[in-house]
Amino acid sequence: MANNETKLRGTIKKILFPRAKTTDIDFVIAVFGNDDFDVVIKGNIYGAVEKEEIIVEGEWVEDKKYGLQFKVNAWEKPIPSTKEQAYELLSSSLVKGCGPKTARLIVDSLGDGAIETILEQKEACLLPIKGISKKNAGKIVASLSENFNVQNIIKHLAQYGVTVKMAIKLHKEYGSNAVPIILRNPYELTNLSMVGFDRADIIARNMGIAEDSLYRCEAAVIHIMREQPGHCYVDKPDLIRECQALLNKRSAIEIESTLVEKAINNLSKNNKLQVEEDRVYLKQLYQLEKTLAQKVAELVFAKGPVVPRSKIARELIKYQARNKIFLNEKQQETIYKTFENNILLLTGGPGTGKTATIKAVVEIYRQVFPDHTIALCAPTGRASQNLSKIVEIEGKTIHRLLNWGARKTEDGTETTSIERDEANPLEEDFVIVDELSMADIELASCLFRALKTGSRILLVGDADQLPSVGPGAVLRDLLKSPVPSVRLTEIYRQAKNSLIVENAHRINNGQMICTVPGRKDFIFLERSDPQDVEETILACIKRLLEIGYKKEDILVLSPMKKGVSGVLSLNEKIKSLLNPPNSRKKELVVGSKSFRVGDIIIQNQRNDVNKGLYNGNMGLVKNICVNPDDPESREEGLLCEIWGNEIFLTREDITEYDFTTGYCITTHKSQGGQAKVVIAPVITNHYIMLTRNILYTAITRAEEMMIMVGQKKALAMAVKNTTPNLRKTFLSEKIEKYLSEKQKKQLTANFFTC
Ligand SMILES: Nc1ncnc2c1ncn2[C@@H]1O[C@H](COP(=O)(O)OP(=O)(O)OP(=O)(O)O)[C@@H](O)[C@H]1O
């Protein structure tokens, strides 16, 4: 404690700021005191609630407006020692799973030192108490130890800039070791998904970490690797250059390239990076690319049971007669190739008959192998459901097929677990994957790992769609590789009648769109002023609602998040139009986000099979209330309908899964989704994102009507721009390498058997 620092012991009598008495706000002003004195204190008193006794350390300051106040630099919450103090804490909103009744049961059973006993003995001392379930005992222990641990972290690290939210995450990640770990290497903070390199760098500087520290350099390398937009690797010279630029931006000294090289070597020794020739990978991405390449090469190399072509031909004729359809040459080739190979790719633009071909493949496969089982899956729920309507097999997300999700371990920490893998493969003999363009390297790799030996896989997708949001360009790489493939090109009559399909193909061929006066399926509303674009989009929505469309039928897509006609701006404006506030409508504020009953929402992070939550899910807020399944809880959250299921989202869920309002979403996020009407701004302000495949993806989301609003010049720029999305991946080369190794091995084996 510094010389002028004072310690005061007292009770928080009233929190003046913030008014909402949340416990995770970093700055609080409160009336504090005891029977002898009252004083206004201000500073960080994480976790303290009104009526609670704490000890504050700090100094007296003279506020120009409010006079003498006490500035809190550190504080301590004495562990409650009497029965009544323990009851106060246990029945407060800080402790989850424990209402006043349970609190009374606990203090009556454990006595004066109840809190200390729980912190020491954990669930063991609670379980014998009648009326406390195992689940609630876990919650009580977790929230008490979080509370005291987080306070300890704040006490030691807040002075350097560690916030309450960071402390909560640090506690989850490192438990009671958090303080020594961060004091040694503050860049460990970047392992928490909420702390970026820049923030950690400021905290490190406050702690006096040297600018040329290897920890700093390693953190910068990892930061650059993680920030790569969709690439699987970075070229080493580029990485060194980018890293020096990042470090030098905030250094008084020049960071040498040799130090960056040393950091790269260290990280690769510690299994964080993999360097292959001049390609630098994050270790995990390297493993994923390698596994996928090996599995694909195995499938290309292996041949399943040979089915005579004549048998397939007979089944094909029967199928066509039964379904009164004549499959074109490429569609027929797909059927034959499915039976000749263990892996096959089927690609083609909208309306070229991919789904019709899958239907034929499934029916013929069932005739040829009546005992075999088939799995139908896609990267998103929407895509898998669309397919199941036609093929009459239950479509699943790849995540659900693999039973992939977040699981809670015994101590309450979350881990990702994937039930299906080499050790516990899928049972199905034939796996069909639709919308493969959306699968990133991780999803594809995990799916291939889970295929049982001898199974077949048919991969279907439109190679002209945007690549996956996550790293990799799996579909495009597989098309470049030795994997057999068929490309469908014929557009069917029904499709030709649709200006949406026609314009999608025109854009793919580098031509401008065409519109026909009086036709409502494709409309281009020319507006030169970007502000007018937003106004026109809002006017279109109003009109669509007047003519009978529901708000769920309309999807507004923007290529950019920020700026005029970006997702953030449009979301706010459309929300005000479609779901304006009123005194009877409840609202929930979570950080900078706010939700109203009736809002359309979208999930932007993580998949969780247990909760039935998948990245990109959209839903509707039905109510703002406490969790109907947890009557003891007092915290309000969102009761939502997501994909026909009622799901309760706590404040924590909203942050963890990054739920936002979804009146307007990025075109990238819209992949695999469809809506009756799609509206998209096309303006030169979005020039970085004006690309052919962003435009193509937006158009192919529309089922009945596509409305573009903006400038012809911007449209022309997008149609011409074919360069983006060149992703640094080495998948196809690796497949070739593993395949040729297998072929050489076989040749050698054959040679010796001869
Ligand atoms: N060989 C064929 N003869 C006649 N009609 C066909 C044939 N193949 C497909 N179709 C029809 O063409 C339309 C578009 O086909 P389908 O839905 O299979 O295309 P798709 O490539 O899956 O399109 P999208 O990617 O847009 O979903 C459907 O109505 C389908 O029944």
* CATH-assigned fold name of the largest domain: Rossmann fold
Proportion in helices: 40-55%
List the domain count as a whole number. Answer: 4
Distance between the termini: 85 Å
Q: Which structural class do the helices and strands define? A: alpha/beta
Strand arrangement in the largest pleated sheet = 11-10-14-15-9-16
Shape: globular
Hetero ligands: adenosine-5'-triphosphate
Mean pLDDT: 88
CATH architectural group of the largest domain: 3-Layer(aba) Sandwich
What is the CATH level 1 assignment of the largest domain?
Alpha Beta
The largest sheet, given as strand count, sense and whether it forms a barrel, is: 6 strands, parallel
CATH superfamily caption of the largest domain: P-loop containing nucleotide triphosphate hydrolases
Care to count the β-strands? 28
Uncertain stretches of 5 or more adjacent residues:
none
Q: Helix count? A: 26
Strand content: 15-25%
**Radius of gyration of CA atoms, rounded to a whole number:** 30 Å
